[in-house]
Design brief:
The complex is a heterodimer of chains A (184) and B (180).
Chain A: H1 2-18, E1 21-24, E2 30-37, E3 40-46, E4 49-54, E5 64-70, E6 74-75, H2 79-85, E7 98-110, E8 113-122, E9 125-138, E10 141-151, E11 171-182
Chain B: H1 7-31, H2 37-66, H3 78-108, E1 114-115, E2 119-120, H4 129-163
Antiparallel strand pairs in B: 1-2
The chains are: A mainly beta (184), B mainly alpha (180).
Chain lengths: 184, 180
């Protein structure tokens, strides 16, 4: 039994070593967020983003990632809300067309579970963050998924009258699920 | 003996009336406000009141079904009795249906209703813009019907009290009762 397990692991390690998953599959990827408005859960997502990633499942610690999100591709469920959140008090998409994340370090916290540290930039605010994520290999694809809680006001998202966190919560959960195919 | 409504029926009547008198103008006022945290708050308050009316209405209908109301006096003509009863049944129906139409509209527009920001009501319909717009029209039309029926209901009660000078209104406001 142990031998079989060992063989399987070795085999997985061997095949994985050859693979560097770096080609984003946009159709199977999503960057969504969840907030609360007067206790009501509100979901949204970004339709367009790019991820320049290099992940080897055999050595995820050596992986690097740069994710760029087109802020104007935000979808918050209605035109009225869209017109508001692309404006100056929120994402100010005319001035800040991109939000980005650049990884600096990946650490393993448990089998299949990792944590990525890096710099997140939204508007003109850059902060060091750490996000846990999981890796899942399916066929020739690799799924990177996780939940990252942030505080919107730390990035100046929803300032002025919208800073009222009794109406719109400060905490926003970013839920990412990125699918990559093996690169050349 | 059975001249007044029960204390419970009276309390439910006036409590629901008060909530409607708050939610109705609030609904009209909030609708045309520009998007702001203030507007989002008012929408939540309006929905919380609506859910409260709905639950009180269900209890009220249960109470009405298990406790006979005082009968209308024979001084009233048959068509008057019929009109009064009809208005009551329409109002009973509306205080249940109007909150439901608002609840469904909220879901169709993509906003779950969370009572007092704590208790989430299930979304009975999925998000759907056209359905949301239709339900808004239904909600508004039902409220126009409510306004018309209330005008008749209140007008009738005042006519009984000030013109016919009988004890009809006193059944709901016992302190107004005239000694005969």
């Amino acid at each position: 039994m142990k031998t079989i397990l060992f063989l399987m692991l070795a085999l997985a390690g061997f095949t994985a070593q050859a693979a560097d998953y770096s080609v984003l599959q946009p159709q199977q990827s999503s960057i969504a967020f969840l907030s609360r408005q007067m206790g009501v859960p509100m979901e949204g997502h970004f339709a367009r983003f790019n991820a320049a990633v290099s992940v080897d499942p055999a050595q995820p610690e050596k992986g690097t990632a740069r994710i760029d999100i087109e802020t104007a591709s935000i979808d918050v469920g209605s035109q009225e809300a869209y017109d508001e959140v692309i404006g100056k008090s929120w994402f100010d998409t005319a001035k800040f067309p991109q939000a980005s994340f650049v990884s600096s370090q990946v650490t393993r916290i448990a089998p299949g579970r990792y944590e990525v540290a890096g710099r997140m930039t939204i508007r003109d605010v850059t902060r060091e963050i750490r996000a846990p994520f999981t890796l899942e290999q399916k066929g020739n694809q690799l799924m990177v998924a996780g939940v990252l809680p942030i505080k919107r006001l730390e990035y100046g998202i929803g300032s002025g009258m919208w800073g009222d966190t009794d109406t719109i919560a400060d905490e926003v959960q970013i839920r990412f699920r990125l699918t990559f195919a093996a690169g050349k | 003996m059975n001249d007044n409504y029960t204390r419970t029926a009276i309390s439910l009547h006036w409590l629901i009336a008060l909530l409607i008198f708050a939610a109705f103008p609030l609904g009209i006022y909030m609708h045309d406000l520009p998007l702001s945290p203030y507007k989002l708050r008012l929408y939540s308050y309006h929905k919380w009141i609506g859910v409260t009316v709905f639950l009180l209405a269900l209890f009220r209908i249960y109470w009405r079904a298990t406790h006979l109301p005082p009968v209308l006096p024979d001084s009233m003509k048959n068509w008057e009795k019929f009109a009064a009863h009809s208005a009551h049944y329409v109002l009973y129906a509306l205080i249940v249906i109007i909150p439901i139409s608002g609840w469904l509209m909220s879901s169709a527009k993509g906003f779950q209703t969370v009572w007092f920001g704590v208790l989430p009501l299930p979304d009975l319909v999925d998000k759907n813009k056209e359905l949301g717009d239709q339900l808004l029209q239904v909600h508004q039309a039902l409220n126009l019907l409510l306004l018309g029926t209330l005008a008749a209901h209140v007008g009738g009660a005042l006519k009984h009290h000030f013109i016919e000078r009988d004890n009809i209104l006193a059944r709901m406001l016992p302190f107004l009762r005239r000694k005969s």
